[in-house]
Write a structure and sequence with these properties.
512 residues, alpha+beta, nine-stranded mixed beta sheet, 16 helices, disordered N terminus
Length: 512
């Protein structure tokens, strides 16, 4: 008996016919009172059985007479006359990182003719339970010789054999539940994601950081320069915003005496969607009182290196054909130096705080600028235009202008700059951190400057947050803080080309 046809090669009429046949089988089960039972209890997982007994030879395994109860989704089936084989897949993790699988053997003599006949009519994708004894086939494959088989959940839709092409890539994101079933490597991506997050958490907890939760709905969106999502609270009859960052709440906690604090948080920014951007994303943000930017650079490097080790057990990785080494010290590169290196001959000796020069350079690259932007803003845009694309190896970018760093502390030796860094890997911004601004009067003036920009039409500019200023007026200790983009970090460490590949349920347009 052959496996089901590939849905991708079938007409809609043929697919509907398969669906109808499966529903008819379900109706028959309902008539006998055996549809969707919940009295089968599994005692063993496929991967554990392979690990514990896979090396035993045929005779030694049969001598042990090991009784097991396994359950999972039927992925393969080969029906013969008086005996049949099937492969079931469960939630354990196999040797290659995919789901665990084990073969089952159903026969007239042990399972019973009636049970075997019923089994013959089950479909790929059905969830089944099997009790029996472990043995090895002549080919050496670990198998359960079934004494009992049960249909636990009828699959009314046939599984695709595989996904391919752009249209099916979209289907993978929309139907992640199917993607996880039929593409074993996908499960490993999300298992690696879990290990990465756990590594970040364990490193910070070991350093005596306290993990907290802060509001996702906020009366004033702050902590980043971004356009927020807007919602309405009916009971309070007030406008609220989905948070764009937890920063200002976490620093309120530092004021309150929680001197080492972090949150692994979901943020929401009403901006574009691309291979690097999703409107809803995950960040790690952390703050430490009585430390400064250099401390946070070292901590960020340690966190990223630990995450790389947790993800795949190695520090030298290959990302989309490019080698990246997390084992060696991360490079450091000031913004002006990067512009001089990649901005062309004119930038080599120019004054990179000369607004007119920067505007002319951007004009040559056909990048628009406006009168509201000072030299700091234009310098950052020029850096993004000429230098970011070259930053493949882990690199801390330094010397950010105060104009584009409204929450960072001004540098004592040069107040036009801030003690801030961004970490770039494979041209992606992975982390952002700085010595926090803790002067409430300076912060209030920067908020006012952001408010003026918002009034001038900049939808991403910050609001004036009077309560945060009030908190600072109680005394924010000298503090260092940073945020790490978990989704982008997972992309790198799992060799995933798109951020959608590392988010279980990415946002998409409604299906037509």
């Amino acid at each position: 008996m052959a496996e089901e046809n590939k849905p991708e090669s079938q007409s809609p009429h043929e697919v509907n016919k398969i669906d109808d046949e499966r529903r008819e089988k379900l109706h028959a089960l309902r008539a006998t009172g055996t549809a969707y039972p919940n009295d089968f209890r599994r005692t063993a997982l496929a991967a554990r059985l392979a690990n514990d007994h896979g090396e035993l030879d045929k005779a030694a395994l049969e001598a042990k007479k090991i009784e097991v109860a396994v359950a999972g989704r039927m992925m393969l089936k080969r029906v013969m006359g008086k005996a049949s084989f099937a492969t079931i897949q469960d939630g354990s993790t196999g040797p290659q990182g995919g789901p665990g699988r084990i073969q089952v053997y159903v026969s007239n003599d042990v399972t019973g003719e009636a049970a075997h006949d019923a089994f013959k009519h089950w479909d790929l994708g059905d969830v089944i339970g099997v009790r029996g004894t472990l043995f090895k086939t002549n080919k050496g494959e670990l198998t359960v010789h079934a004494s009992e088989v049960r249909l636990l959940a009828k699959a009314l839709r046939p599984l695709p054999e595989k996904f391919h092409g752009l249209a099916d890539q979209e289907m993978r994101y929309r139907q992640r539940y199917v993607d996880l079933i039929v593409n074993p490597q996908v499960r490993e991506v999300f298992a690696a994601r879990s290990r990465i997050v756990q590594s970040l958490r364990e490193t910070l907890v070991a350093d005596h950081y306290l993990e907290v939760e802060t509001p996702m709905m906020q009366p004033i969106p702050g902590g980043a320069v971004a356009k927020p999502f807007v919602t309405h609270h009916n009971a309070l009859d007030m406008q609220l915003f989905l948070r764009i960052a937890p920063e200002l709440y976490l620093k309120r906690l530092v004021v309150g005496g929680i001197e080492r604090v972090f949150e692994i948080n979901r943020n929401f920014r009403n901006e574009g969607i691309s291979t690097r951007h999703n409107p809803e994303f995950t960040m790690l943000e952390m703050y430490c009182a009585y430390e400064e930017c250099e401390y946070m650079i070292a901590l960020t490097e340690r966190l990223v290196r630990g995450a790389a080790q947790a993800a795949g057990g190695k520090l030298a990785i290959d990302y989309q054909g490019k080698g990246i080494d997390f084992g060696k010290p991360f490079a450091r590169l000031p913004i002006p130096e990067a512009i001089r290196k990649w901005g062309g001959p004119a930038c080599a000796t120019a004054d990179l705080r000369d607004r007119a020069f920067l505007a002319a350079q951007l004009d040559a690259h056909r990048i628009p600028c406006n009168a509201e932007q000072g030299w700091g803003s234009l310098q950052l845009v020029l850096f993004e235009t000429v230098a970011e694309k070259h930053l493949v190896e882990p690199t801390f970018v330094l010397d950010f202008p105060a104009e584009v760093s409204p929450l960072a502390r001004r540098r004592d030796a040069d107040p036009e700059l801030t003690d801030r860094f961004e970490l770039f890997i494979d041209t992606k911004e992975i982390a952002n951190g700085f010595s926090e601004l803790n002067d409430p009067e300076d912060q209030a003036e920067r908020f006012r400057d952001q408010a003026r920009k918002k009034e001038a039409g900049d939808q991403e500019a910050m609001y004036y947050d009077a309560d945060y200023i009030r908190a600072m007026e109680y005394g924010l200790p000298p503090t260092a803080g940073a945020g790490i983009g978990i989704d982008r970090l997972v992309m790198l460490l799992t060799d995933s080309p798109s951020i959608r590949d590392v988010i279980l349920f990415p946002h998409m347009r409604p299906e037509s």
